[in-house]
Amino acid sequence: NLVGVKDSNKGNVKIYPNPEKSTLYIDGGIKLDNLRVWSVTGKLILTVEDVQDEISISELHNGIYMVELI
Fold first, then answer.
1. Rg of the chain over all Cα atoms, to the nearest angstrom
2. What pTM does this model have?
């Protein structure tokens, strides 16, 4: 636990491309239960359950977001 960041067993998950306007691709070969997208102000913007290898982000406004993999 370094600077409040929990250790993860998610391995080497790649989320790309960055920046993107419509679809994020997720590559890592592991099962993700949930994916959450947060604004820089800490507001939960999007939750995706049963994450596949791509998610649509076309409804998000331009900005900077953080992605949490669960």
1. 12
2. 0.79
User: What is residue 61's DSSP assignment?
Assistant: P
Q: Is the pLDDT of residue 4 over 70?
A: no
For 59, the 3-state DSSP assignment is coil
- Can you tell me which residue has the tokens 């679809």? 23
Query: Which of 43, 46, 44, 37 is closest to 65 using CA atoms?
Result: 37
Q: What is the total residue count of the chain?
A: 70
Tokens found for residue 62: 């331009």
The count of other CB atoms within 10 Å of the CB of residue 4 is: 5
Q: How far apart are CA 30 and CA 48, in angstroms?
A: 16
